[in-house]
Design brief:
This protein has helices spanning about 5-20, 30-40, 50-65, 75-95, 105-115, 215-230; strands spanning about 115-120, 130-140, 140-150, 155-160, 175-180, 180-185, 185-190, 195-200, 205-210, 230-235. The protein has a 6-stranded antiparallel sheet with strand order 2-3-4-9-8-7, sandwiched between helices. It has a two-stranded antiparallel ribbon with strand order 1-10. The chain starts with 6 loop residues before the first helix and ends with a strand. Strand 2 and strand 3 (about 140-150) form a beta hairpin. The longest helix is centred in the middle third of the chain and has 19 residues, at about 75-95. It has a domain at about 75-235: Phosphorylase Kinase, domain 1 (2-Layer Sandwich). By secondary structure, the protein is of the alpha+beta class.
């Protein structure tokens, strides 16, 4: 067999192979894979990662501050006040009191700033620790707020506002007794918090905490009694 090659012999061999060898069509997915592999790589969008990170941050902040966003204001004046008192309690829970004053040292200043005097005041015991007092301004009324913590870390806020004749809803009143003392404060709820609501003379009083379960209510009653029997707020002259 000769080792010489010529263009004519190569062309003849190619024609023979094309004529005699069987042909098979490539599957469609192979065509697509080859086309995709041959295409130049598309550049990554450099802006995509920062945009996704910003969106995630906005979502987290939105969820964190959603409870603080304005909601529909209740028409009932007592419910509206409870909502304001609970919002103030939430602020103190998150950020602490603006002026965590000590009683009785700061009592003259607190009376001047709040318009509320305290003939006697609960300053804590073996169950509740006094955490501070501060003047507040809620729904157009100056008042005073006293903060306490129990052994489980629950924050309680006792708020007094000068609102004569505040209606206390009868359907939510709860009978509480200690010895010869009997009270019927209303137990109201807002935003996952509970609030005792009652009147002392011309003053509206509120005791707020996150104690909402049935087991917590009995302890919350006890805390109400401790504050109620030891605190006598009066309008400042």
């Amino acid at each position: 067999m000769s080792g010489d090659h010529s263009p004519d012999s190569d062309e003849a061999l190619g024609a023979r192979l094309r004529a005699e060898l069987p042909r098979y069509s490539a599957p469609a997915h192979l065509h697509a894979a080859i086309a995709e592999g041959a295409a130049p790589p598309r550049p990554r969008a450099a802006w995509l990662a920062p945009v996704l990170a910003a969106a995630a941050t906005a979502l987290v902040l939105g969820l964190a501050f959603l409870p603080l966003l304005p909601r529909i204001v209740p028409a009932d004046p007592t419910e509206r006040l409870v909502r304001s008192v609970v919002a103030e309690h939430t602020r103190a829970l998150m950020w602490g009191a603006r002026h965590p004053e000590v009683i009785p040292t700061a009592l003259p200043w607190l009376t001047q700033e709040s318009g509320i005097g305290l003939r006697q005041v609960f300053v804590g015991d073996d169950r509740l620790v006094f955490a501070g007092a501060e003047p507040v301004y809620l729904e157009g009324h100056r008042g005073i707020a006293l903060h306490y913590r129990d052994g489980d870390g629950h924050l309680l806020t006792y708020t007094v506002l000068p609102i004569p004749g505040l209606p206390v809803p009868d359907r939510q009143r709860v009978q509480i007794e200690q010895g010869t003392n009997r009270w019927r404060p209303a137990l109201m709820h807002d935003s996952g918090f509970s609030a005792w609501v009652w009147r002392q003379g011309e003053l509206a009083c509120f005791l707020v905490s996150d104690m909402v379960s049935e087991a917590d209510v009995e302890r919350f009653k006890d805390y109400f009694v401790r504050v109620r029997v030891s605190t006598e707020p009066v309008p400042a002259n």
